[in-house]
Amino acid sequence: MHLEDLKAFDKVCELGSFTKAAQALNFVQSSVTMKVQKLEAYYGTQLLYRDKKAIKPTAAGKALRIYIKDIFRLLDEAEQHISHNHQAQLNLGAIETITATHLPQILQHYHQCEPSVAVQFQTGSTQALVNKVKARELDCALISGEIEDQALVAETFTHEQMVVIASKALDVEQSNLTIPIIVFDHGCFYRTYFTSWLKYHDIEVSHMITLNTLDGMLGCVEGNLGIAMLPQSVIQRYPEHKFQCLAVSEPFLPVPLQIIYRKDLFQTDTIQNFINCVKS
After folding, report:
1. Which of 31, 93, 123, 222 could staple 129 via S-S, CB 3.0–4.6 A?
2. Are residues 221 and 262 in the same domain?
3. 151 and 275: one domain?
4. In CATH, what number is assigned to the domain containing residue 223?
């Protein structure tokens, strides 16, 4: 049963004719007849008396018309309420480093396009954000690394040059150096990237310090508690921190940053304009 079936039935009752109802609704007559028959099959009872002179509703048909009027009245009220009172909202996620570097400019640009949109924002690891987008808890997310998932669209909007950072007090030239590393939690692409780099260069790690904030990571590195790997753009944004920086070179290429969203996401102007702001 569909709303069009109810609308067709009500119009037949109002005009007393399948032909007139079809003309009023811009349907072919056979379509109107079929819609009424579907309703009768659905409810398991006759809804219309079909006389040659006129078509009239049965007792069941009269009762149904009362409900039909209530249904369409409530639908009209819902449309009026939502259209006039609903504030457009964007549910967005991003990893910590993108939040600190790229996001402010993106949101500034977006606010110029959509000044009335309320942005609900949360940070998380790449994997956590992927899971939340797939679960429809987020409309879209800004992540690091390349994601291949049949449920998602992933579009690269820039690349990040990575650097390894250490305290000025650490003698990185020391032979047989065994050092702690400072990383984000499991699910972070940079964590996986960093451990692969360490293994490639045969650098022995004494232990890991896991943190979930960028400020905490920078502070621990500056305090000579370990080394970390971060995008160069992050280090440039925090000139007050004094680090030794080692550029990450081939075969470790710059890391792609991507915006992800579900393939079946209903793309309102609110969402499409944000995607355009990210890609521009």
Report:
1. 93
2. no
3. yes
4. 3.40.190.10
pTM: 0.71
Q: Are strands 178-183 and 162-167 parallel, antiparallel or unpaired?
A: unpaired
Residues 74 and 96 in one domain: no
The pLDDT tens digits for 82-131 are 766 556 789 999 999 999 999 999 999 999 988 888 899 999 999 999 99
Q: Residue ranges of the alpha helices (H) in the chain?
A: 3-15, 18-25, 29-43, 59-85, 96-101, 103-113, 126-134, 189-200, 214-222, 232-237, 269-279
Q: Which amino acid is at 71?
A: I
C-alpha separations of 225 from 114, 201, 236 in Å? 44, 21, 21
Structural domain count of the chain: 3
Structure tokens at 47: 């809804």
Structure-token pair, residue 241: 């921190």
Which domain does 187 fall in, by range?
A: 162-253
Edge-to-edge strands, sheet with 89-94: 118-123, 89-94, 140-144, 255-262, 152-160
Given phi > 0 = left and psi -120 to 50 = alpha, else beta, which region is 175? beta
